[in-house]
Amino acid sequence: MKSLTSTLLFAAPIVVQAAYAGESAVVTLKISGMACPRCASGVCNALVKVEGVESATVDLEKALAVVRFDPTKTSTSRLIAAVSAFGGARHRFTATVASTEKSEAQAAAPAPRSSCCAAP
Predict the structure, then answer these.
(1) How many domains does the chain fold into?
(2) Considering the domain boundaries, does residue 115 fall inside one?
(3) Rounded to 5 degrees, what are φ and ψ at 14?
(4) Which residues of 86-99 are buried (b: 16+ CB within 10 A; e: fewer)?
(5) Cα separation of 74 and 89, whole Å?
(6) Mean pLDDT of the 76-99 span
(7) In CATH, what number is assigned to the domain containing residue 67?
(8) β 14-17/53-59 pair status
(9) Sign (positive/negative) of CA torsion 69, 70, 73, 74?
């Protein structure tokens, strides 16, 4: 079961962390379609609901999401699909890969300054 920490502060990036062990992968996604903090929070929620996601940070101003995940449980394509599915017919959100990392040392998530949601 995921253990998540969450608070909300609109000026800072949105961060959610979960406890997982093992080798992590990190992907930075360029997100289009976010217009407000509520959009960023929803994108963050969609990402953390994907099985295997360890942490997600969504920065509305930069239109970026940094996601640390267990590559044995999920993939970048699943993360992209989760972002696209979140908006539904009413809002169109898209995600593309901006960069990836695989080193555990590089994958260390930032301390949660703010986070998105009442996560599951």
Answers:
(1) 1
(2) no
(3) -90, 130
(4) bbeeeeebebeeee
(5) 25
(6) 87
(7) 3.30.70.100
(8) antiparallel
(9) positive
Considering only CA atoms, which of 73, 76, 87 is closest in space to residue 38? Answer: 87
Quote the longest CA-to-CA distance of the chain: 39
With a CB cutoff of 8 Å and minimum separation 6, the contacts of 99 are 27, 28
Residue identified by tokens 């998540």 is: 4
Please name every residue paired with 59 in a beta bridge, in sequence order, or none if there are none: 64
Phi, psi for residue 108 in degrees, rounded to 5: -60, 125
What does the alpha-carbon distance between residue 35 and residue 60 come to, in Å, rounded to a whole number? 8
- Give domain status of residue 117, yes or no: no
Q: pTM to 2 decimals?
A: 0.68
**17-26, 68-77, 105-114, range with the lowest pLDDT:** 105-114
Q: Token digits for 41?
A: 């929070």
Q: CA-to-CA distance for 50 and 105, rounded, in angstroms?
A: 23
Structure confidence at residue 87 (pLDDT): 76
pLDDT (tens digit, 9 = 90+) per residue, 29-60?
A: 999 999 999 999 999 999 999 999 999 999 99
Tell me the residue range of the domain where 85 lies: 14-101
